[in-house]
């Protein structure tokens, strides 16, 4: 057996056992690496001013935890406590109210009655209630699992920031990638991921703050529901409706029609039309302008939009990061093939001449 074959077998064996060893952490490692790529400009800025890679990595990890994972942790913890404090009588009252509302809708919803009769005739309220109770019991477990994964992402993110350049240089030497190819790949992926990450964070915080202010005005927890709206806004088309519609129906059910109409009109006009339709594209455009100085590195906004949708559909919450990353990586590989083809054609023309 030739030595290179033996080494290849050893490498394949080692790769298989490495996969078995780190399989439970692959998602966290991937997300941490992509987040490190997305925020590489922040890391460079901190290194320049702190004069220490270790300190810069530590500060950037704290910033990520504070801006991205702390709100999620607060939301999940608060939701878990609220759901666990629900009493059986409360759930029973909700069940009775829903049944009465379906059978005898209030005057302001009478025009929906024909639709209620057709679409809700097979609705089993008892089954929905049982499902809600079962889900409430699982929320604690889900929250604990997410917080554990968030902690792992932060830890891997720190090491990616601290050792990232060394790892990338080593991989370039191993796969024998040319300097031009490595620069193109890292530039394209970093540019797209930076735009996606900062756009998601900025728009979610902006729309969440708008909803939180409105909902706190009528007496609800503005911080909690602002965070919920921010993450709901990441769901295309129906994101905001998932938040303001239940509030509107609940306010109607307790007789506060003024609050109900305020929430509905404010959410539609101020957030969905003004903020989402007019202000959000301006934010994304400014982020593109600040981060992407090279026109060749820009990825069409529609491609990014559909990549986020596909990612959310396939991978769930983390898909909003994985979808654009996979798409950008694929398109960059196509550019590498295109560059190689053009180079071969130039060489062929020189030989023929």
Automatic annotation (TrEMBL):
| Pfam families in alphabetical order | AI-2E_transport
Highest taxon listed in the record's lineage: Bacteria
Q: According to its UniProt record, where is this protein mainly located?
A: membrane
Q: State which residue ranges cross the membrane.
A: 6-37, 58-76, 150-171, 192-220, 226-249, 261-284, 304-337
Q: Name one GO cellular component term.
A: membrane
Q: What are the record keywords, sorted?
A: Membrane, Transmembrane, Transmembrane helix
Which compartments is it annotated to reside in? Membrane
| Statement: the UniProt record of this protein carries the keyword Oxidoreductase | no
Topology in the lipid bilayer is annotated as: Multi-pass membrane protein
What InterPro entries does the annotation carry?
AI-2E-like (IPR002549)
Alphabetical list of PANTHER family matching this protein: TRANSMEMBRANE PROTEIN, TRANSMEMBRANE PROTEIN 245
Its family remark reads: Belongs to the autoinducer-2 exporter (AI-2E) (TC 2.A.86) family.
What is this protein's record name? AI-2E family transporter
Organism listed in the record: Sulfurimonas marina
Lineage here is: Bacteria, Pseudomonadati, Campylobacterota, Epsilonproteobacteria, Campylobacterales
């Amino acid at each position: 057996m030739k030595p290179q074959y033996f080494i290849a077998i050893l490498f394949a064996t080692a790769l298989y056992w490495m996969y078995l060893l780190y399989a439970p952490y692959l998602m966290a490692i991937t997300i941490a690496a992509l987040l490190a790529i997305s925020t590489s400009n922040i890391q460079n800025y901190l290194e320049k001013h702190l004069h220490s890679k270790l300190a810069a990595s530590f500060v950037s990890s704290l910033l990520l935890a504070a801006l991205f994972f702390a709100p999620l942790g607060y939301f999940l913890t608060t939701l878990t406590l609220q759901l666990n404090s629900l009493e059986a009588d409360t759930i029973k009252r909700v069940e009775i109210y829903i049944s009465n509302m379906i059978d005898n809708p209030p005057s302001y919803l009478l025009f929906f009655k024909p639709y209620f009769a057709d679409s809700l005739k097979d609705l089993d309220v008892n089954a929905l209630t049982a499902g809600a109770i079962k889900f409430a019991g699982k929320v604690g477990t889900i929250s604990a699992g997410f917080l554990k994964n968030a902690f792992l992402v932060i830890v891997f993110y720190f090491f990616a920031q601290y050792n990232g350049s060394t790892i990338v240089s080593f991989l370039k030497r191993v796969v024998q990638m040319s300097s031009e190819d490595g620069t193109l790949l890292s530039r394209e992926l970093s540019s797209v991921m930076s735009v996606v990450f900062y756009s998601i964070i900025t728009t979610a915080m902006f729309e969440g703050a708008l909803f939180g202010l409105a909902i706190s005005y009528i007496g609800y927890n503005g911080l909690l529901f602002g965070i919920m709206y921010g993450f709901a806004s990441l769901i295309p088309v129906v994101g905001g409706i998932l938040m303001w519609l239940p509030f509107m129906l609940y306010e109607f059910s307790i007789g506060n029609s003024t609050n109900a109409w305020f929430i509905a009109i404010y959410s539609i006009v101020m957030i969905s039309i003004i903020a989402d339709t007019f202000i959000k594209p301006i934010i994304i455009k400014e982020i593109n302008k600040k981060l992407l100085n090279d026109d060749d590195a820009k990825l069409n906004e529609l491609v990014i939009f559909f990549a986020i949708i596909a990612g959310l559909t396939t991978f769930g919450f983390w898909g909003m990061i994985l979808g654009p990353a996979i798409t950008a990586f694929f398109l960059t590989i196509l550019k590498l093939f295109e560059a190689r083809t053009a180079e071969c054609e130039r060489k062929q023309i020189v030989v023929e001449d």
